[in-house]
Each structure stands twice: as C-alpha cells, then as structure tokens.
Design goal:
The protein is mostly helical. Helix content is about 75%, strand content about 5%.
C-alpha cells in the first residue's frame, strides 16, 4: 500500500506542478474543473445515489455551476461564494473537532450532503481559479498553497507516528492525534511565513504585518485542511464506505486525495482578500 502511494505521488506531483506553473490559465481552470467533476461523481455515490444516470446527472449539475461561474458570474459573485464557503468551513471545523466520541449513525441516503457537495466543489474550483489568475504571483501562490497542504499532511503523519498519544477525533478518524495536529500546524506556519516572504516583497514597514498575516492564515489553512479530511471521513463512515473511489492506486479516490484542498482553498483565498493583501 505504501509503495503504491509513493509511486502514484511520484507520477502525479510533476504533472500537478506543470499544470499550476506552466499551463495557460484557461487550461488550468479546465483541468481543475475536470478534477472537481470526478469528485462530484464520487460524492454522488457517497451521498447515496446508487444508479449511474443519477450520478451522471449530479456531475452534470456540478459542471453547469462551474461553467456559470466561468462564463457568467461577476467578480463580486465569485468572491461572495468564496467567502461563504470559507465561513462554512470554519464553522464545520469547530463542529468536527468537538465531535470526539459522539456516536455516528449510518445513512444510505444523505440529501443534505448531496447538496452541500455542489457548493463545496464549485467554491473550491472558484478559489483555485481566482488564486491562479492573479498577475505574476498567482501560479506560484497556488503552488505554495498546495505545498502548504502537503507539508502539513506529511508533518501530521510523521509526528503522529512518532509522538501521537491522544486521539484528535476517535470516532471520525481514529488514526489522527492531537500531537500530529500540532506537528502539522508548526510545519504549516514555517512554510507559510517563508512563502509570503519570498512571494511578497514587503517593505520594512509592512514586514511585521505580512508575517502576522502569514502565520494566522497558514494556521487557519492547516486547521481547515484537517477538518476537510475529517468531514470526508464522516460522510464515508455514514455511507459505510472505506474510500471515495478507486482511481488512484494506494490513495483511494480523487476526493480522498484532495479533501484537504477542497476545504482549505476557499479559506486561504478569503484570508488573502480580507487581509487586504489581494484586492
């Protein structure tokens, strides 16, 4: 299993880096849209749509929303969607981290989760596209966000393996520990500050403000990225499924691999807007 995960990562990471840094913006948006539509297909199954026609209808609906955001929505509408999704994820994070030992009930059909998926996927797509289109710094900042999530996830895994004692969310994800979470936050903070210093050439007068924003935003992004994983675990356990799909050997489905990104991208971009770093 570990070998499969490593081999899949070795193949995918160069493709992701190319797609973010080298692809034209329209192609990047199309690639991300395709990924989100694959997630929609998996999410339809998790939420209880059993037949292929219903699953395809759900994917089509998600595609229509993304197309509307690309062709019709104004900048104000796009930004509002990102802010709404960010607020929703922050609230969900509080609820998920306080879940602890609360019993989890199985559900063959989850209509609220079904509708929520459309919002979460379209908002994640919009956040990534809005971030990527920023002049000069956009692609690099997008890759920086991905690296932040990868670093936080890796730090949580290795710190948890070495030092983990206290369960973070024993019902939702028994393998996660508070110590692993602390490791993720520390690693995310270090990378976040470094990323902001490298990408934003702040003057001496604004360096302290930039570092403060980098710390706060990196920590929030890392926290919500963990919550994104917990949220998917909740949905999978209610659906009595181990993985969202089987497209990525050793990793499960597409949503399994990018659940943290779906959650954290709107929070990261909303933070950039609200801090005034991005207009």
């Amino acid at each position: 299993m570990l070998l499969q995960r490593v081999l899949t990562a070795i193949i995918l990471i160069p493709l992701v880096v190319w797609g973010v840094l080298a692809a034209d913006h329209w192609l990047f948006a199309a690639i991300v849209a395709a990924v989100m539509l694959l997630c929609a297909w998996e999410w339809a199954r998790l939420a209880g749509l059993k037949t292929l026609p219903l699953q395809l209808l759900y994917v089509l609906l998600c595609g229509v929303l993304i197309a509307a955001l690309w062709f019709i929505a104004t900048d104000g509408v796009s930004r509002f969607l990102i802010l709404i999704a960010a607020g929703l994820w922050l609230g969900m994070s509080l609820a998920l981290f306080s879940w602890r030992h609360k019993a989890l009930h199985k559900a063959a059909f989850q209509p609220f989760i079904l509708m929520l998926g459309l919002l979460l996927l379209s908002a994640a797509w919009q956040a990534l596209v809005s971030l990527h289109q920023l002049t000069d710094v956009g692609p690099k900042l997008t890759l920086g966000l991905l690296i932040l999530i990868w670093i936080a996830d890796s730090a949580a895994y290795f710190t948890g393996k070495a030092l983990g004692r206290r369960k973070l969310a024993p019902v939702l994800s028994p393998g996660k520990t508070i110590e692993g979470m602390a490791g993720a936050l520390a690693a995310a903070a270090v990378w976040g500050v470094l990323m902001f210093v490298l990408l934003f050439q702040a003057s001496a007068n604004s360096t302290a403000y930039m570092i403060s924003i980098a710390l706060l935003l990196s920590l929030l992004t890392a926290i919500v990225s963990v919550a994104g994983d917990l949220f998917e675990s909740l949905v999978k356990r209610r659906a009595d499924m181990k993985d969202s799909g089987h497209l990525l050997p050793g990793h499960g489905g597409i949503w399994d691999r990018i659940d943290s990104l779906i959650a954290s991208a709107p929070v990261f971009v909303a933070g950039l807007y609200l801090s005034g770093i991005l207009q």
